[in-house]
Amino acid sequence: MRALVDPTSEQQSVERQLNPRPSSLSGRTVGLLDISKARGDVVLDRLAQRLEGDGATVLRYTKPTFTKPAPVDLRHEISVQCEVVIEALAD
Amino acid sequence: MRDGWVAIVKQDCPTCVLVAPVLRQLAEIGPLTVLSQDDPAFPPGLEVVDDRELEQSWRLSVETVPTLLHLKDGVETARTVGWSRGQWETMTSVTGLGPDLPDHRPGCGSRTVEWGVEADLERRYGDRVLTSRTVELADLEDEVEAAYDRGWTDGLPVVAPTEARVLAMLKGTSHAPDEVVATVPPDLVPCTVEKVAVNAVMAGCLPEHLPVVLAAVAAACTDAFNMHGLLATTFPAGPVVVVDGPIVARLRMNGDGNALGQGNRANATIGRALQLVVRNIGGGRPGGVDRATQGQPGKLSFCFAESTDEPPFAPLAERRGVPGSALTLFPGSGTVPVVDQLSRTPESLARSLAAVLRVLPHPKLAIAFDALLVISPEHGRVLREGGWDAERLVAELDALLTVPGAELSRGVGGMTEGMPPGFESVPVPKFRPGGLLLAYAGGRAGLFSTVVPGWVNGPGGSEPVTVSIEEWA
Amino acid sequence: MFLASSEFADAALAQTRAVGLAVPYVLVPHPIQDRTDEELTSLADQAYAAVLAAVTGNPG
User: Fold this and answer.
1) What phi and psi, each to the nearest 5 degrees, are found at residue B326?
2) What's the pTM?
3) Model ipTM value
């Protein structure tokens, strides 16, 4: 365990912050990232249907293999095109 | 530790081996505690306390082995180091110690004073000196990325501020870590010596650089310098640190070739540390309170020393009333080189300099903006040979830069920008009194000087500030 | 956020801790591989509310 001394005025919490969450997905672009484990696509298909039913625009992506982190280009593409990402299905 | 005699030894010490029989003698006479720094089976035939962790040795401030000391009611009453029959017998009031031994033999270094060990022991067993909170990194977090992710950097990677590094940095000043150096804008947070040290570590400073950083932070946060205004302006200005005095040589700062450029650790890291404090403690960052439209590279770090190589005038800080090791903080907005490779007289050189000064940051704006003119050694030679000192040069420039106000009015020359109404019928100086500062730096070759255009002065603007560095040592 | 089967729960927690970022996740009942399409569709429906809550930050 490595500890660094905080160089700031300590007016903010140490936890790394997630991006702010949108309050609803209607009108938002949601990315569904399939990590390529078998049968995950069926689950994602249904999630896509439900999301579109709730007014979201759904974009689909696939990781080349589930054994390694997503390639930089894929991550960049998703981060530019989507406001929210759902990754599935790890089992 | 129980009262009585305490002996601290290590097996890897011929004198400790020599006195082992003496310790056995003492153990039969009175209470004796033996601490071994490297081998709990040494000395043989005695009950030995294993101090391989060196905690007891550190707490007893042992520097030499063997050390023999006496405790009464938990307090040390006597101590001797090495072997000397006379001293040991006096201390213990026992005669006939070590009859087969030579009269005396010097000891060896205690393990606690081996290279690097002392700092580690202080960190482990010393009272916790640091009061800043610590941020624990996750196992897979890279130290460099961790700083970026938390917004601690100026865009370049920083040195990870570990406790050990911060403690080492704090040795660069005699001031206490919890002493408040300044209240840093824009968040107006009290900034301690410790917090400056953390940012100095990140910037890449050595402990000996810390006093300069502390002085710079103190200067920047004065009302006169107005760091808040300097941050919040859309104009591209940032603090420029000019260092004078014996500390320049001691820290090996650069006032010579490429003094305003890259490559010198002290120059680069001191300037950077100041900016990191502004960012991390004060909360002033681009996108937030820092609203610079374009900015400039000097906002990463801009710190240099004046040259001591045949200066034509006294150091800037001394001329501003602070002799010795001192720094001047100037709100600078970049650098503009001035070419003059032909002037043989100071009169001619002054005209070249004035011609460039006249147009910065706009030919028709006067009085409101200050400037720092950095004379190079070759230009300095022209001044020196002509017998001109700083006052003479500034007086000449002021005269050359005073023009009829009508030339500066808005609309004149087809330029809408210019002086507001009210100046048309008077001569208008480019600079307010004291608004043009002179410094001396650079390498021996090159017939160029540099103008560092400033920022606005007056209320709402910034006043250059000169402070002593010596008080921060 | 990510979806994981209940078998993955410990690994999911460890991973978020290891990178130091508390990414939200939703667990679905194990097993996955040998379920029919209808079962997986139903599983997605059951998880949907939790997925929405995770990405919008609304308790839902």
Assistant:
1) -155, 165
2) 0.76
3) 0.80
Q: How confident is the model at residue C60 (pLDDT cuts 50, 70, 90)?
A: very low
Cβ <8 Å between C19 and B146:
no
pLDDT 10s digits, A45-58: 999 999 999 999 99
Asked whether the beta carbons of residue A46 and residue C40 sit closer than 8 angstroms, the reply is yes
Q: What is the pLDDT of residues B127-142, one digit of tens each?
A: 777 999 999 888 878 9
Q: Which residue of C has its CA nearest to A91?
A: C5
Is pLDDT of C17 > 70?
no
User: H or E element: which one contains B9?
Assistant: strand B4-9
CA distance B142 to chain C (A): 9
- Cβ atoms of residues B375 and B439 within 8 Å: yes
CA dihedral B435, B436, B439, B441 (to 10 degrees): 130
To the nearest 10 degrees (0 to 180), the angle between helices B193-203 and B210-220 is 120
Q: What are phi and psi of B451, to 5 degrees?
A: -100, 130
Mind telling me how many Å the CA of C9 is from chain B's nearest CA?
19
**What's the Rg (C-alpha) of chain B?**
31
Cis omega (within 30 of 0) for bond into B44: no
Rounded (10°) angle between helices B390-400 and B346-357: 60
Cβ contacts of B276 within 8 Å, gap of 6 or more: A7, B152, B153, B154, B158, B199, B202, B203
pLDDT digits 0-9 by tens, B50-84: 999 999 999 999 999 999 999 999 899 999 999 99
Give the pair of three-digit tokens for residue B335: 């650098």
Is the pLDDT score of A43 beyond 80? yes
Whether residue B408 has pLDDT greater than 60: yes
What is the Rg, in whole angstroms, of the alpha carbon atoms belonging to chain C? 13
Which residues of A sit within 8 Å Cβ distance of C?
Answer: 15-16, 18, 20-25, 30, 37-40, 42-47, 50, 54, 84-91
Chain A residues at the B interface, defined by Cβ less than 8 Å, are: 1-11, 14, 16
Q: Give the phi and the psi of residue B298 in degrees, each rounded to 5.
A: -65, -10
Contact B351, B446 (CB under 8 A): no
Average pLDDT, chain B: 95
